[in-house]
Specification:
585 residues, alpha+beta, Immunoglobulin-like, 4 domains, 7-stranded mixed beta sheet, 5-stranded mixed beta sheet, 31 strands, 22% helix, flat, membrane
Length: 585
C-alpha cells in the first residue's frame, strides 16, 4: 500500500534540514494476547534498502504499508516517510522490537529497540475489534480423536472439522501443512465431496465441514503426538460500514487456523498370560482351517486354507502356518485379503491357501494349529484352535520303507599270469607322417587379408552410434536411472527372506524407476501426488493402485511382520507393475 500527500505553504516551523531522524513509534507498550500492535518506522529524509526486524514473538498481520508526506513552508521543503506494520502476539511475555535499518545519503541509520509486554487476553469493546479478531472468534479448526488411551495396534480415528459461524463467509481454503503420523500405521479415508452441516459449537449455532479423515494404528507404546493440520482460509468478515442501500459491507481477509497438537497415551499389551502363539493380532477375530477335500488319489491336489476373519489390525500380523507331514508335497501359499477400512478400523478377512499334492497312498493327519489375539475391550488374550484334519489317499504307489538293506562291496585280487605283464603295450602303433601346410594362399590368409575391409563399415556404424548416444543426454539419464532401478530390484531379490533389507531395496527401486520415467524426485512426494502424476501420464487405475500398494507395503513392513511368501509376491508384483508402466508411459 502506498499513500502520498502533498501540502503547500502550511504555516509551521521547518525542521532543521541537516538533522536526519529515523525512529520507531508503537501504538502501545502493553497489550493483551488478543489485541493488535501498530508499529511505525518513520524518517525525515528519503532512504533506500529498508530492513525491518524479525518481530520475534509476533505474527505480521498487515504490512509493510508505506506512506510519504512532502510539505513546503515559506519556501522550505519538509519531508517524512514511514513503514507501518500491524502485529499479532503469538505468546505471553516481554518482547523486544529490534532495530530496523535504512540507508540515507549513503549512510546506514538504525532505530532504537523498544520493549513490549504481552499479557493475558483482555476484554475489548466490540467497536475496537479488528477484522482478524472477528475472524478468529468465528472460525475454528478442530481435530476430533476417537480415543486418547488405546492399546498398541488398536485403531484410533482422527476427524478434522472446520467450524464456521453464520456471521462470516468462507470463500476458499488450502492446506498449509499436512500432519505426519510418526510411529503410526495410517490410512486416509478419502472424501468424494465436502458436505456442509448445521450444528452447535460452544453453545452457539455453527456450520461445519469435514476436511480430512484418517485411521491410525499406534505401533509404539507410550505418549505419541499427532501433528496439527494447518489451513490458509480466505473469508469475508462484516464491518461496521453500510453501503448505499443500508446493507452491511464485508471485508475479505486471510487467516491461518490450526487443529491443536494432540497427544495420546498408548498402552502396551500385557505380558502376563501372553501365549506363545500370539503374533500381534489385536481386535475380535474368528479363526478357520479347512481343506477342499479329505479323500483323493495320489498325484491329485487339494487346497488347505488358513483364514482369519473379523475386525482389527488385519494387515499388521502374520497368519500361523500349518505343520504338514513330510510325505505331502506343499507349495508356497497364495495370500489373499478382502479388507475395508472405516472410521472404526479395518474389517474383513485374510487367508493363506496351500496347494498340497500327496505322492503315496495312506492316511496323513494335519495337526490342529492355534491362533491368539488380544481383545482390547475384554483386555485379555483369546486363543482359538483348529481341529485335526486327516487326508485319506486311496490309490497310488506304496511308500517305501525308510530302512533299506545295506549293500557291501567285495574286493577281489587281480591275478596276472606269468609272462603277460606287458601284453597291453601295442607293438604296432600305426604311425602316419605329418605333412607341412603353407599359410600363404590358405583360407586363413584370405580372411586376414579381407578383415580390414570388413571392419571399416562396422567401425563407422559404431562411431555414429556412440555419437548419437553422447548427444542424447536425456536418454542417457533415463538409461542410467533404469539401470539403477534394475540394480535395486536385483538387490531386493537377493534380500528375499530379510524383511528390512528387501523392502528398503524395493522402495528405492520403485522411486528410481519413476525418477527415470517422470524425471522428478518422487521420493519427496506423497502417495496421492504420485498417483496424480501417473494418472496425468495416462496410466490406468489398476496399475496405479498396484504401484501405490507396493509403496504402502514397503511402509508397513517397518512395523509389521511379513512372511517370505508375501515378499516373493511383492517382488513379482513389482516386476509386473514396472512392466505395465513401461507399456503405458
Amino acid at each position: 500500500m502506498f499513500l502520498f500527500a502533498l501540502v503547500l505553504f502550511v504555516p509551521t516551523q521547518a525542521q532543521d534540514k541537516d538533522e536526519v531522524l529515523f525512529e520507531v513509534k508503537l501504538s502501545k507498550k502493553s497489550l493483551g494476547i488478543n489485541e493488535r500492535l501498530s508499529v511505525e518506522f518513520s524518517m525525515n529524509r528519503d532512504g533506500d534498502n529498508f530492513q525491518p526486524p524479525d518481530f520475534e514473538g509476533f505474527r505480521v498481520v498487515m504490512g509493510p504499508t508505506q506512506s510519504i508526506s512532502s510539505m513546503w513552508v515559506n519556501g522550505v521543503r519538509s519531508f517524512s516517510k514511514s513503514y507501518s506494520y500491524i502485529l499479532a502476539p503469538t505468546a505471553r511475555g516481554t518482547f523486544t522490537i529490534k532495530q530496523a535499518t535504512i540507508v540515507i545519503d549513503g549512510e546506514t541509520y538504525k532505530s532504537l529497540p523498544e520493549k513490549v509486554t504481552v499479557t493475558a487476553a483482555v476484554d475489548k469493546p466490540s467497536d475496537e475489534k479488528t477484522v482478524d479478531d472477528i475472524a478468529s472468534e468465528n472460525l475454528h479448526l478442530v481435530a476430533e480423536v476417537s480415543k486418547t488411551d488405546p492399546y498398541l495396534n488398536e485403531p484410533v480415528s482422527v476427524v478434522y472439522k472446520l467450524y464456521v459461524s453464520p456471521a462470516i463467509n468462507v470463500n476458499d481454503f488450502r492446506p498449509l501443512d499436512n500432519p505426519k503420523y510418526n510411529n503410526f500405521w495410517s490410512q486416509d479415508l478419502p472424501l468424494t465431496r465436502y458436505t456442509v452441516e448445521n450444528t452447535t459449537y460452544q453453545g452457539k449455532p455453527y456450520r461445519y465441514v469435514i476436511l480430512k479423515r484418517v485411521v491410525l494404528y499406534p505401533q509404539k507404546s507410550g505418549k505419541l503426538e499427532i501433528e496439527p493440520l494447518s489451513l490458509d482460509v480466505t473469508l469475508d468478515v462484516p464491518t461496521d460500514k453500510r453501503d448505499f442501500f443500508g446493507r452491511r459491507t464485508y471485508r475479505q481477509t486471510n487467516m491461518t487456523v490450526s487443529a491443536g497438537r494432540r497427544t495420546i497415551n498408548v498402552k502396551a499389551l500385557p505380558l502376563a498370560g501372553r501365549p506363545e502363539s500370539f503374533n500381534g493380532a489385536v481386535g475380535k477375530f474368528d479363526f478357520f482351517v479347512s481343506t477342499s477335500k479329505e479323500v483323493l488319489n495320489a498325484s491329485e491336489s487339494l487346497q488347505a486354507k488358513v483364514s482369519v476373519k473379523g475386525k482389527g489390525n488385519l494387515k499388521l500380523f502374520q497368519l500361523p502356518e500349518p505343520s504338514l507331514p513330510s510325505a505331502l508335497e506343499v507349495y508356497e501359499p497364495e495370500f489373499d485379503e478382502n479388507i475395508r477400512t472405516t472410521l472404526t478400523g479395518m474389517q474383513g478377512e485374510v487367508s493363506n491357501s496351500y496347494t498340497i499334492v500327496p505322492a503315496y497312498r495312506g492316511k496323513y493327519p494335519i495337526p490342529g494349529i492355534s491362533f491368539t489375539y488380544f481383545d482390547p475391550e475384554l483386555e485379555k488374550y483369546i486363543t482359538q484352535s483348529s481341529e485335526e484334519i486327516t487326508i485319506n489317499v486311496l490309490e497310488g504307489p506304496q511308500r517305501e520303507s525308510p530302512t533299506k538293506e545295506a549293500t557291501t562291496t567285495r574286493r577281489q585280487a587281480v591275478t596276472v599270469e606269468a609272462g603277460s605283464q606287458f601284453n597291453f603295450i601295442k607293438l604296432k602303433p600305426n604311425l602316419q607322417e605329418i605333412g607341412y601346410k603353407f599359410f600363404f594362399g590358405s583360407t586363413g590368409f584370405y580372411l586376414w587379408l579381407l578383415s580390414p575391409v570388413l571392419l571399416i563399415p562396422i567401425a563407422v556404424l559404431f562411431g555414429k552410434k556412440r555419437e548419437a548416444i553422447a548427444k542424447d543426454i536425456e536418454g542417457s539419464k533415463v538409461k542410467k536411472a533404469n539401470k539403477l532401478a534394475r540394480k535395486y530390484l536385483s538387490t531386493a531379490k537377493k534380500a528375499l527372506g530379510n524383511k528390512e533389507a528387501f523392502y528398503v531395496a524395493m522402495e528405492k527401486a520403485l522411486h528410481n524407476y519413476l525418477k527415470a520415467k517422470l524425471k522428478i524426485e518422487t521420493s519427496e512426494f506423497a502417495k496421492e501426488k504420485i498417483a496424480a502424476l501417473l494418472k496425468e501420464k495416462g496410466s490406468d487405475s489398476v496399475t496405479i493402485n498396484g504401484f501405490i500398494g507396493l509403496i504402502q507395503n514397503c511402509e508397513m513392513a517397518r512395523y509389521s511382520p511379513f512372511s517370505n511368501v508375501q515378499m516373493q509376491q511383492d517382488y513379482e508384483n513389482a516386476s509386473d507393475v514396472i512392466s505395465s508402466l513401461d507399456k503405458q508411459l
